[in-house]
Amino acid sequence: MHDEQLILYYYDDGLSDREKQQIEAALKDDVDLAARYERLRRRLAEFNESEVPPAPAHVVQRWHDSIDRVARMESNRLSKPGNPFSFMSFFWGAAITAALAIGIGIGVYLSGDSTVIPVLNETVADTESYREASIPAAFTRSLQVHLRDSQSEIARLPLDSDADRAHLMMEIIEQNRLFERAAERKNSPNFARVLRAFEPILVRLAAEDIAPEDVEALRAQLAFELNVMLTKLAREASEEPHTI
Amino acid sequence: MRNAGAPTQADFHEAISKRSDRWFAACLKITRSPELAEDAVQDALLSAWDKRHQFGHSARLETWIHRIAVNAALQLLRKNRPGVFEPLDVDVADDSTTPEGARSIEELGGEFSAAAARLSEIERVCFVLKHLEQWRLQEIAEELNVKVDTVKQAIFRGVRKLRVSMVDLRSQDYA
Fold first, then answer.
1. From A5, A170, B70, B114, which residue has the greatest number of CB atoms within 10 Å?
2. Contact criterion met (CB < 8 Å) for A71 and B47
3. In A, what residues contact B, Cβ < 8 A?
4. CA end-to-end span of chain A
5. Rounded to a whole number, what is the distance in Å from the CA of A4 to chain B's nearest CA?
6. Rounded distance, CA A57 to CA A63, Å?
């Protein structure tokens, strides 16, 4: 009898009832086979889950944070007035709110007061400054390119195909994670935190079962958050001391 | 679970505190990449939160998230390495990891992960899903989009190589 049959017998999977009975009978009658099966059983048991490496503490914290963030986002969305629900009023309401918020945001920036930042909810834009001493200008520039690309892709987001939208959002999530990790490696927790804050919105937009009105609302929110971040990055870059 | 409704934010935190090490370990064994494993758990948590109203309470929340995390790990692996589950006629070990990455995986994953480096991707994934995750052969075949016979062969080869690898590793330790 081959080891392969004994392996399937051990897992109790992939053998017919007749094959199992044949193996059982052989194990009873053949001492050498029984010993071979016992060795195999002991060896396979050694591979059981004996070692559970702990996930790094900062990663576990990030998972906790992501649940808090997504719960807060949902609670903000649900607490907005507007019921009974009307798609058109919701759509125009979201668009007008976003436009107003962006306008007020730009006004606040121009006035130089960065402590009052209007936001649709406290997800991305609640960071006063992303500037960190060690962050290289090249990183900031590539991040700006990434955010601008994301902004234009989100503006062109396909609304008629859930699969296309999900695919595009997953691409953006992947890019976002690369920048988040790069920020962490460059010892820039503020950048990493802000990039992480985008993720629940992006993941929600990637869901294929999302209602069209939710897509519009999330897209407006994302456009606003991206705009805030790009504005801040541009302003902080212009305030950097220039060196030759 | 404290109530029969959808799991709450507190339930999720409790599940993360209690079981996220196990989710991470399972995803690490599948992906052999700490970063992909981390992303898989993150994706699983957000997806589970999104679908928490569908949670049936027939399993525990931790177990439900565990299954979603394993699926997320498989998806990420497939996305990052297209064709990864196509069966190979030749015997190929997993060469996808850099020496530095391999060291960190061994530190994270211990003896099994070190031995599993000698398996091809499909052998490792089939073995992990069958032996550690206790999936049925049919389920594995459907998830990986391969034939049941391919899964069986991958498991047989995986077990054979692991038996040799574990003996080798132990003899190195004692040398």
1. B70
2. no
3. 3-4, 7-8, 11, 13-14, 43-44, 46-55, 59-60, 62-64, 66-68, 70-71, 170, 177, 181, 199-200, 203-204, 207
4. 78
5. 6
6. 10
Both tokens assigned to B5: 């409704």
Tell me the chain B residues in contact with residue A170 when contact means C-beta distances shorter than 8 Å: 79
Question: What is d(CA A155, CA A151) in angstroms, rounded to the nearest whole number?
Answer: 6
Residues A41, A108 within the same domain: no
Clarify whether residues A42 and A105 are in a common domain. no
Please give the DSSP secondary-structure letter assigned to residue B130. Answer: I
d(CA B48, CA B12): 9
Which domain range does residue B173 map to? 102-175
Report the alpha-carbon distance of residue A222 to residue A233 in Å, rounded: 16
Which residue in B has a C-alpha nearest to residue A2's C-alpha?
B156
Interface test with B, best of A63, A66, A69, A181 (most B CBs within 10 A): A63
Chain A partners of B17 at a C-beta cutoff of 8 Å? 60
Cβ(B69)–Cβ(B41) under 8 Å? Answer: yes
Range of the domain at A144: 86-239
Residue B159: list chain A partners with CB under 8 A.
3, 7, 44
Residue B92 maps to a domain? no
- Record the pTM: 0.67
| A101, A201: one domain | yes
Report the C-alpha gap between A74 and B135 in whole angstroms.
34
In this complex, the residue of A13, A59, A207 whose CB is nearest that of residue B38 is: A59
**Contact assignment for A66 to B108 by CB distance below 8 Å:** no
Residues of chain A with C-beta less than 8 angstroms from the C-beta of B20:
55, 60, 63
- Into how many domains does chain A fold? 2
What total number of domains does chain B contain?
2
Each residue's pLDDT expressed in tens, for chain A with a length of 244 residues: 888 999 999 999 999 999 999 999 999 999 999 999 999 998 888 887 566 778 999 899 989 988 998 888 777 766 665 544 444 444 555 555 555 555 544 444 444 433 332 333 445 555 555 555 566 777 788 888 888 888 888 887 777 777 788 888 888 888 888 888 888 777 777 778 888 888 888 888 887 777 888 888 888 888 888 888 888 888 776 765 554 4
The pair of structure tokens assigned to A21 is 């009975």
- Cis preceding-peptide flag for B82 (omega within 30 of 0): no
Same domain, A35 and A90: no
Chain A residues whose beta carbon lies within 8 Å of the beta carbon of residue B111: 51
